[in-house]
Amino acid sequence: MERPDLTGQSNTLKLWNKYRVSNIPSLIFIDAATGKVVCRNGLLVIRDDPEGLEFPWGPKPFSEVVAGPLLRNNGQSVDSASLEGSHVGVYFSAHWCPPCRSLTRVLVESYRKIKEAGQKFEIVFVSADRSEDSFKQYFSEMPWLAVPYSDEARRSRLNRLYGIQGIPTLIVLDPKGDVITRQGRVEVLNDIECREFPWHPKPVLELTDSNAVQLNEGPCLVLFVDSEDDGESEAAKQLIQPIAEKIIAKYKAKDEEAPLLFFVAGVDDMTDSLRDYTNLPEAAPLLTILDMSARAKYVMDVEEITPEIVEAFVSDFLADKLKPEPI
Predict the structure, then answer these.
(1) How many CA atoms lie less than 13 Å away from 129 in the CB half-sphere?
(2) Nearest-CA neighbor of 168 among 258, 270, 89?
(3) 3-class DSSP state of 290
């Protein structure tokens, strides 16, 4: 369902952004004492545990949630303990979903390249197929492991653990089971040769066709530059990177997600389409914060972008001092 226009409701908008809500209905449980998220997928919780036997539904380690037999597509069963010491991709996908099938074809090649390079890496497929026959047909294309389709409770618990709101989603874990990135889909498509595996997040990204989907996840600072020259884009990234790193570190220390993603956008058809869609001026450089799902934008149109201007712009946004314009 489309997210409502919240440009005139600042407190509500802040809650949507804080908890990265992208569709409704959405039910999120938080710890009232700390404000930290206990569970992002409360609708699944009340469906799976209507009696509240697992209350307060706090997060559990991946190793505990995934525990049990896993399958290979030849029918062989493997214990989940075999994942210990490996990076793991948790792949939420389904055969009925065309973007999922497209990603799976790329992911199969990525998986083979990573394994051939000697990396300890495994993928666990968590199906959202609508029947076991569809699951079997789809899984036959995959060289990795899967949670048995019949184990609906375990599939649901993994969805709950990571607050899955859409597919395909690929979450990459380190050998301890901690999340490296929730953007495995974007990373796989951007790094076909897998040179940057296991894809630790970068503070600032260059906006591309494949990562533009992240613009829908919450507020994004986008610095538009008027050049196809990689050198200018790199200089723009270096300009905002210290500010991005500071924001990310501040919220990581509180065990919270950063309230902004950071991008640099050059000159290409996708960037032109984004400017047209958001009705941005043609000026460059142009400093913006775009909240696509709330249909809100904040624009700083000045002749020269300096670190001081970026930092003040970000600080004012986080302090709710900027007035949003509608997209």
Answers:
(1) 22
(2) 89
(3) strand
- The C-alpha atoms of residue 212 and residue 214 are separated, in whole angstroms, by 5
In order, the DSSP letters of 162-231 are HT--SSSEEEEE-TTS-EEES-HHHHHHH-TT-TTTT-PPPSSEE--TTTGGGGGGS-EEEEE-S---HH
DSSP 13-27: HHHHHHTT--SSS--
Instruction: Considering the chain, tell me which residue range(s) the CATH 3.40.30.10 domain(s) occupy.
Output: 62-190, 205-326
Residues with Cβ within 8 Å of 35's Cβ and at least 6 positions away in sequence, in order, are none
The tokens for 201 are 């997040």
Q: Average pLDDT of each block of 10 consecutive residues along the chain (327 residues)?
A: 50 71 82 82 85 85 97 96 98 97 98 97 98 97 98 94 91 96 93 96 91 89 82 90 95 86 92 94 91 89 92 94 92
37's enclosing H/E stretch is strand 37-39
Query: Could you tell me if 95 and 129 are in contact, meaning their C-beta atoms sit under 8 angstroms apart?
Result: yes
Strands 296-300 and 325-326: antiparallel
205-326 adopts what CATH topology? Glutaredoxin (3.40.30)
Q: What CATH fold (topology level) applies to the domain 62-190?
A: Glutaredoxin (3.40.30)
**Cα 264 from Cα 224, distance rounded (Å):** 6
Q: What's the CA gap between 196 and 208, in Å, rounded?
A: 17
pTM above threshold 0.85: no
| CB half-sphere exposure, 259, CA atoms < 13 A | 18
- Distance, in Å, from the CA atom of 153 to the CA atom of 44, rounded to the nearest integer, reads 10
The answer to whether the peptide bond before residue 56 is cis (omega within 30 degrees of 0) is yes
Torsions phi, psi for 37 (to 5 deg): -70, 130
